[in-house]
């Protein structure tokens, strides 16, 4: 298990592509990255305006940017849209919270005991790669379109991300610190609080960020496939009723929600780990 | 003795769980939770019988095609984006946005464009799992050790030789991290794309079983899907540990010192 650790943990650095880039190659000549980035976004919007108009992309499948934009504005004006968005966010937040608590508690309990770790390793390695969408039929049968079916998928998907990261984190505890704490007769809770938790916190934060993204994907997927109320379901309805511009607009909405979730969790990570070397400009791994 | 101990630890809990499931469900009359024996029967008869060729194989072929396309496109674009800083600055917000779109939501749109045939499913899989591959490759290429990179430049190693001998090997741990994330996304999309409209495939067959209330078959299909996910990740891990043997060895040496 330990041989997969570096690769998994390298990934968070990949997500923060922008930050170290500026640090290592600060000698930017000409246009600033922010300006170029804005230019890229404008170019994307412009391409989506021009290409369908001049017929490079078939107009019946590719609405222009202005059409998507006006459909988006229409959507934003409807209360049904906001209800759907709240439904999605509710399922996402609830599922993420359950998965995070379960992952942290189980991760610390299993990770603190070498015996438990050995006993559960094979089971975890087997259950983890099972795609959560395999649970869709069961979720439909048991819960129909109520929120539980969405939660089942979200929690299953997000839980493993969380658990694995916490397990890595707990294993990373410095044995000297652990022994010192024992020598000073720290009890189990005190050791968890003052030794294990601070060591594992960076991993917990990475796990949280990955889980948050996965949870959002599964929340929307459940709505799309099972038909739970939410943005995903609204998108399916728009598509089947032929409102193509609205379908695109809702895809844009899910993308924007995803970006906001990413930024939010990166922000939380930075705040929670402001004391940690990885956040002080040094590249951790 | 030590080997026995390790095997015992590895099989212990799964055997206990399986036995527990078997015993508690043996006399189950609950419609939704049939006895495990019936599920296993159906798994062996149906899924390792006719359905293996009819449903599992088409799914796997589409998965392979989509994943392959995503790997080629993702690594190519990733190398370009990782190499040129300007390009990276230009595209970063756009890529962040595309990556944040939950891949299943593009299924309805791609269904309009490509119909409901294999093309659509392959495009869905490729589209969804391309982003983690692309972004990880770009990051890996960007983070190539600057001393190595400058040395190569001093020796006038450039073009294809630079790509083959410096950039791709240096970025390969990250590329594999991306490929692994991509693979799990690809499996999800393989199933999702078959849920909307299909005439064959694993996802299709499972939902078909669920809709016709063939509950043991549904459970068997879910087990099959789980087994497939597990085997694919195992296979990937074997390939990865072969390919990156030098890297893991290097890291172990670094840690030991």
Automatic annotation (TrEMBL), chain A:
Tell me the PROSITE patterns matching this sequence. Answer: ABC_TM1
Q: What is its main location?
A: membrane
Annotated transmembrane regions: 34-54, 92-114, 126-145, 151-170, 200-222, 242-265
Start and end residues of each ABC transmembrane type-1 domain: 85-269
Claim: tRNA processing is one of the keywords in the record? no
Membrane protein topology class: Multi-pass membrane protein
> Which UniProt keywords are listed?
Cell membrane, Membrane, Transmembrane, Transmembrane helix, Transport
According to its UniProt entry, one GO biological process term is:
transmembrane transport
UniProt entry tagged with the keyword Transmembrane:
yes
Q: Name one Pfam family in it.
A: BPD_transp_1
Q: Tell me which domain of life the UniProt entry assigns to the organism this sequence originates from.
A: Bacteria
- Record localization: Cell membrane
GO cellular component terms listed in the entry, alphabetical order: plasma membrane
In the record, the note on similarity to other proteins reads:
Belongs to the binding-protein-dependent transport system permease family.
Q: List the protein's name.
A: ABC-type nitrate/sulfonate/bicarbonate transport system, permease component
Question: What is the source species?
Answer: Geodermatophilus ruber
TrEMBL record, chain B:
Q: Where are the transmembrane segments?
A: 60-84, 105-134, 183-207, 219-239
Pfam families for the chain: BPD_transp_1
Q: Which UniProt keywords apply?
A: Cell membrane, Membrane, Transmembrane, Transmembrane helix, Transport
Q: Does the keyword Transmembrane helix apply?
A: yes
**What are the boundaries of the signal sequence?**
none
Subcellular localization:
Cell membrane
| Primary location | membrane
Q: Which InterPro entries match?
A: MetI-like, MetI-like_sf
* Any Gene Ontology CC annotation: plasma membrane
The record's listing under PROSITE patterns reads: ABC_TM1
List the membrane topology term(s).
Answer: Multi-pass membrane protein
Task: Return the similarity comment.
Answer: Belongs to the binding-protein-dependent transport system permease family.
Please state what the protein is called: ABC-type nitrate/sulfonate/bicarbonate transport system, permease component
- Per the UniProt record, the source organism is Geodermatophilus ruber
């Amino acid at each position: 298990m330990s041989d997969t650790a570096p690769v998994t943990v390298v990934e968070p650095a990949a997500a923060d592509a922008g930050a170290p880039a500026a640090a290592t190659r600060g000698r930017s000549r000409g246009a600033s990255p922010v300006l170029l980035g804005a230019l890229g976004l404008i170019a994307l919007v412009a391409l989506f305006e021009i290409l369908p108009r001049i017929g490079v992309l078939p107009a019946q499948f590719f609405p222009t940017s202005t059409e998507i934009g006006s459909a988006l504005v229409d959507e934003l004006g409807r209360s049904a849209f906001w209800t759907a968005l709240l439904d999605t966010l509710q399922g996402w937040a609830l599922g993420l919270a359950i998965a995070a608590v379960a992952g942290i508690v189980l991760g610390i309990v299993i990770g603190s005991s070498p015996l438990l770790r050995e006993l559960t390793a094979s089971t975890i390695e087997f259950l983890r790669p099972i795609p959560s969408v395999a649970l869709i039929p069961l979720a439909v049968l048991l819960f129909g379109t109520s929120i539980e079916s969405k939660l089942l998928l979200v929690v299953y998907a997000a839980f493993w991300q969380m658990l694995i990261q916490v397990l890595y984190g707990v294993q990373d505890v410095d044995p000297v610190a652990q022994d010192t704490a024992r020598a000073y007769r720290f009890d189990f809770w005190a050791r968890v609080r003052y030794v294990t938790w601070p060591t594992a916190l960076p991993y917990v934060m990475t796990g949280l960020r990955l889980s948050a993204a996965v949870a959002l994907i599964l929340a929307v997927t459940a709505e799309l496939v099972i038909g739970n109320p939410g943005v995903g379901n609204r998108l399916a309805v728009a598509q089947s009723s032929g409102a193509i511009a609205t379908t695109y607009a809702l895809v844009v909405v899910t993308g924007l929600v995803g970006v906001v979730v990413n930024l939010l969790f990166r922000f939380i990570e930075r705040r929670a780990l402001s004391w940690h070397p990885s956040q002080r400009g040094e590249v951790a791994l | 003795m030590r080997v026995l101990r390790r095997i015992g630890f590895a099989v212990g809990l799964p055997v206990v769980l399986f036995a527990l499931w078997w015993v508690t469900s043996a006399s189950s009359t609950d419609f939704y939770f049939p006895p495990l024996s019936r599920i296993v029967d159906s798994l062996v008869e149906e899924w390792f019988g006719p359905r293996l060729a009819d449903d599992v194989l088409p799914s796997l072929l589409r998965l392979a095609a989509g994943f392959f396309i995503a790997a080629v496109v993702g690594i190519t674009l990733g190398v370009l984006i990782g190499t040129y800083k300007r390009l990276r600055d230009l595209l970063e917000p756009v890529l962040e946005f595309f990556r944040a779109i939950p891949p299943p939501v593009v299924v309805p749109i791609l269904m309009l464009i490509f119909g409901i045939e294999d093309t659509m499913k392959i495009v869905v899989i490729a589209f969804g799992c391309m982003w983690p591959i692309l972004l990880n490759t770009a990051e890996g290429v960007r983070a190539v050790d600057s001393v190595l990179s400058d040395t190569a430049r001093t020796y006038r190693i450039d073009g294809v030789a630079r790509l083959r001998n410096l950039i791709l090997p240096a970025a390969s741990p990250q590329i594999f991290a991306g490929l692994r994330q991509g693979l799990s996304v690809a499996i999800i999309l393989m199933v999702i794309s078959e849920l909307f409209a299909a005439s064959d495939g694993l996802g299709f067959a499972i939902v078909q079983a669920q809709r016709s209330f063939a509950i043991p078959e549904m459970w068997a299909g879910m087990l099959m899907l789980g087994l497939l996910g597990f085997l694919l990740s195992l296979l990937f891990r074997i390939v990865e540990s072969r390919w990156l043997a030098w890297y893991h060895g290097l890291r172990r040496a670094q840690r030991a010192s």
